[in-house]
Design goal:
Radius of gyration: 28 Å
Strand order of the largest sheet: 13-12-11-14-15-16-17-18
Number of strands: 20
Largest sheet: 8 strands, mixed
CATH architecture of the largest domain: Alpha-Beta Complex
Oligomer: single chain
């Protein structure tokens, strides 16, 4: 062995070729953490000093190649000054440049996932061999930065500016066929053959069949486009990339501008441009928020794995109640590999549920994401039935009937008698107390909530609700089933609205108070969408459905009368009483018409202002800042209450629930991160301006204590 570290080993092969093997022994995947990079630097120095070296390949003993840099190190790395970040980047560049400058041909055997810094290492090599099941890509823009170890320099010179813009600014993963077609890799082989193919291409390069030195010159030289061609390539891309990224995500446009700046430079100067731009992005609030989200997502997954490790597998599921929601649950379960029985008392409802699943599968087939054989297999995994014939084999049954406690209790009691010993029963309720529903059951310890968000196939969150008598076994198995369905489960304790709706309705209450004080709902929607929400509160109420929201509002008012109760007519009640239910009947705050794709298109309805007359005693102008403060303050205070009452276990889970459940702006990092960014002292001072609006606007004593002692939710 030529070199042996904890992660990097260098083994001699035949014909003077050496194999740099990456094996991160402390992890299930390979990551380029600081310790690994230090070892890589030492290994490359040893290789450079090795006499008669004929070639170097880079390989992995794991099922992945390298998933990227160690993101857990980013927070600390980015706290230093821009100058120090640039200095650290140049140290990394020195390693990758040394690989590119080795006195022999180099190749990388990409046997699995190869992202970020892992792919940048691959770009520093002369040849790239990719396994037929591998994926490559540069996803850094999703963290608010761009590739900083030479990716913006080498990739455009390798595959062309247009392709590189799409790879880097879109942050997308690439499958073997696309990577080969666009020139990012040199060959695609069976995964088991990647190492042999890498050795083979080195031998052919040494035999003169491939000119590896010419490849290096191309990667280290200016981009081969004249000034007019460059202008066309970059200026035309700015509009497309800018519109996709939006105003809150600066990294994609910054990446594009960086590539444009160094297009006419050689490697050393181009790297300097890349490093300066990277350092600026690394210091932004958006980067801090998005890196924080990654960390929180990992924390949530770790909690989920903890539950999953204690759970028996779910081999057979059932859903009670077909229709749109039941059909969505059935589709999601079957498409991810868990067979499911879909029961209803009505044949038409079963047909609707199957139609929903078929429609979703048809879309996958039409987009080339599934073939007809797989579609048939998924549909065969959904068993529609009007009786309980096969329920004795069910491991988890999800009740998804109408949001009515009497009906739910009757259905739950009925199905409990049909399930085998130890089977778990869950209710897909958005507001009704799990503890209360459990009173209808003989074994409440086997019962919990499993709140899916609509549409089921798109929304990643599932709230798993623990009632007073719910066992840990029931929670664990439900979490395991949610994960098997491809969802992110977050365990919460029982209360009106659970976590997400409990926090959402104070936000809606803020909207109602603005309208009653004379605000224009169109302005409120515009401001909150500019703030980063995917839709403003009026538009969101239309999408949720005014009847659904009205019911949930009454549950919140009953559960928390001190701050969510109201005697006056709200804008929500006005719209509900007028029968303007939103998208489901084509009229709410807006009118809706189907576009050519069959999706509801929002249209401003000139009749609505007259319909809202009398809700406000007068009209007045609100600044954008006032609207944001009055909308966000009740939401933030309610999430603090949920943490203090142990409805949710951690700020990380709270933030991810809001991002996955209601579309809280990701670039703001979640409500707890948002409070940390503002500073609790500043937030509490700001809230004082609105304390006359009632308890929803009054911070808790714990928030005031945290503010006084400069504590944060994320230390």
């Amino acid at each position: 062995m030529l070199f042996e570290g904890k992660t990097i080993q260098v083994h001699p092969l035949d014909d003077g070729i050496y194999d740099v093997v990456i094996d991160h022994k402390n992890d299930s995947v390979n990551k380029l953490d600081q310790a690994t990079l230090a070892e890589l630097s030492e290994a490359v120095k040893v290789l450079n000093d090795t006499a008669d070296i004929k070639g170097v390949i880079f390989s992995s003993v794991k099922d992945v190649f390298i998933v990227g840099a160690d993101i857990t190190e980013f927070t600390q790395m980015f706290t230093v000054s821009e100058e120090d970040i640039i200095k650290n980047l140049h140290e990394m560049h020195a390693i990758f440049n040394a690989i590119e400058d080795l006195p022999c041909p180099t190749a990388v055997a990409i046997n699995g996932l190869c992202f970020g810094g892992g792919f940048e290492l691959s770009l520093a090599c002369d040849f790239r061999i990719m396994g037929d099941k591998a994926k490559v890509g540069l996803p850094e823009v999703k963290l608010g930065i761009y590739p900083g170890w030479g990716g913006t320099v080498r990739l455009p010179r390798l595959i062309g500016v247009d392709n590189a813009n799409e790879w880097i600014c879109g942050g997308s993963e690439k499958r073997p066929d696309d990577a080969l077609k666009e020139g990012a890799v040199d060959a695609v082989v069976e995964t088991s053959q990647v190492k042999a193919a890498a050795i083979d291409i080195i031998q052919k390069a040494n035999a003169g069949k491939f000119d590896y030195k010419a490849r290096r010159v191309e990667k280290q030289s200016p981009i081969k486009l004249n000034q007019i061609e460059q202008m066309m390539a970059f200026e035309s891309a700015k509009g497309v990339i800018g519109s996709k990224a939006g105003p809150h995500y600066p990294a994609p446009i910054a990446a594009l501008k960086t590539i444009q700046k160094h297009a006419n430079l050689t490697r050393e100067k181009a790297i300097e441009v890349e490093a300066k731009g990277f350092a600026k992005l690394a210091k932004t609030d958006v980067c801090a928020a998005l890196v924080g989200l990654f960390m929180k997502d990992q924390a949530v997954k770790k909690v989920g794995k903890g539950y999953e490790s204690k759970a028996e597998p779910v081999n057979q599921a059932a859903v009670l109640g077909a229709g749109i929601m039941g059909g969505g649950i059935a589709y999601q379960s079957a498409s991810k590999g868990t067979p499911i029985i879909m029961k209803d008392i009505n044949q038409d409802a079963l047909a609707l549920g199957l139609s929903e699943a078929t429609k979703l599968l048809d879309k996958k087939v039409s987009r080339g994401r599934m073939d007809s054989r797989k579609m048939a297999s998924v549909l065969n995994s959904i068993t529609p039935t009007l009786n309980y014939g096969d329920f004795g084999n069910v491991d988890v049954a999800v009740e998804a009937v109408v949001e009515n406690p009497k009906i739910k209790k009757a259905v739950l009691a009925e199905v409990e008698g049909e399930l085998k010993e130890g089977a778990i029963l869950a209710s897909n309720t958005s507001t009704i107390s799990i503890t209360d529903l459990a009173t209808a059951l003989k074994k409440p310890e086997n019962f919990c909530g499993m709140h899916f968000f609509n549409p089921v196939h798109q929304m990643p969150l599932v709230e798993v609700i623990r009632g007073e008598k719910t066992s840990e076994e029931a929670v664990a198995r439900t979490v395991a089933y949610a994960k098997a369905m491809g969802k992110t489960p977050i365990v919460v304790n029982d209360c009106p609205g659970f976590l997400v709706n409990r926090v959402l309705f104070p936000y809606f209450a803020g909207f109602s108070k603005l309208i009653s004080d004379g605000a224009n709902f169109l302005q409120v929607d515009k401001v909150m969408e500019a703030f980063g929400w995917p839709m403003g509160p009026a538009y969101l109420l239309d999408v949720v459905g005014m009847d659904t929201a009205h019911h949930a509002d009454s549950v919140m008012a009953e559960g928390f009368p001190d701050r969510m109760g109201h005697d006056e007519e709200t804008v929500l009640e006005r719209m509900f009483n007028l029968g303007r239910l939103g998208q489901k009947n084509g009229k709410g705050f807006y009118r809706y018409e189907l576009d050519r794709k069959g999706k509801p298109k929002k249209i401003v309805d000139e009749e609505v202002p007259a319909l809202l007359e009398g809700l406000a005693t007068s009209t007045r102008e609100f600044t954008d800042e006032e609207i944001i403060e009055r909308m966000m303050t009740p939401l933030c205070i309610e999430i603090a209450r949920c943490l203090e009452e142990n409805i949710v276990a951690s700020p990380a889970e709270a933030d991810m629930a809001l991002i996955y459940g209601i579309g809280f702006p990701p670039f703001r990092g979640g409500a707890c991160h948002y409070l940390d960014q503002i500073g609790l002292d500043n937030f509490c001072a700001m809230a004082e301006k609105y304390e006359a609006l009632g308890p929803l606007y009054q911070p808790t004593e714990e928030m005031k204590n945290m503010a006084a002692s400069s504590r944060k939710y994320f230390g």
